[in-house]
Amino acid sequence: MKVNGRHYRTIWTEDDAVVILDQTLFPHRFETRRLTTAEDAAEAIRVMRVRGAPLIGATAAYGLALALRADPSDMGLLAAREMLAATRPTAINLVWALDRVIARISPLPLARRASAAWDEAGRICDEDVAINATIGDHGLGLIRAVAARKRGAPVNILTHCNAGWLATVDWGTATAPIYKAHDAGIPVHVWVDETRPRNQGAFLTAWELGQHGVPHTVIVDNAGGHLMQRGQVDMVIVGTDRTTAQGDVCNKIGTYLKALAAADNGVPFYVALPTPTIDHSVRDGLAEIPIEERSPDEVRRIAGRAGDDVIEIELTPPGTPAANPAFDVTPARLVSALITERGIMAPTAEAIAALRMAP
Predict the structure, then answer these.
(1) Which domains, and CATH codes, for the chain?
(2) In 10 A of CB 310, how many CB atoms?
(3) Does 163 belong to an annotated binding site?
(4) Among 65, 163, 195, 321, which is 20 to 30 Å from 182 by CA?
């Protein structure tokens, strides 16, 4: 996607370094950061300089390649995998990317491992771009059908958290159909949930939609149901960090409540995802998916712009306890369909099993 007229991916390489956009500074500053060690990559994932399941996976793959430059032995490989895998436990793409790189380089001589891992990480990035573009093509049909019924009025789409190009290598998952529709001349308008406590909607989704010229409005997290009751939401499209073998969806905290409101108001609730985000080893999302508990300071404090300065302020009374589960699980029964690079599919065990068996 473009920033100030220049095309960017969220991660790329320069010489022997990996370069990322430091998303902890958005939307107030646009800066890049160089990663030269596996520890750099792990820190970037842990503190959310990069975030979003596909981008976390891509960064972890490059982190493993950086680790192998220092120590290509089996012990070094497993130690790096353990360190990187521990950074964010919920997103399945993280472990998927690490294991894919390991499968590629394990049979190779030690001297070839680092370069092969580097190449495999690059392939993961390129594939992510192609996958997300195709997700956009499939989701475009859903938006086009609503637009035909509305006869020129904007299609109102609600999204939660950031499942945009900032969460992937390019295009995004939930935003890919939106960008495709906007670029095709279909009038769309996006309701952007602020997504407390890290405000990925207000900080990131609003920023990238604005950069691309997509009409949007930021709303507080609890406004979605109100808008649905009044017929101001035509569809909900969200992303996911892990989807189970029977179609349960684990996404940013608050997604479950949006799905409940959508079901109560007859609003289609779609989940856009690349198929590597499906965890075929898990069936019951509520019982089996580990939910990351992040620092309570993310709830108690917030960063913002004051004049030319970016400052952090405290929101709660001093010493107030806070809980900060980062994700929740939306049962498959509340999901209208899954939008994948392989097409639009039902959120059922049968459809997901057939997808796994298909060539």
Answers:
(1) 2-127 (1.20.120.420), 135-357 (3.40.50.10470)
(2) 12
(3) no
(4) 195
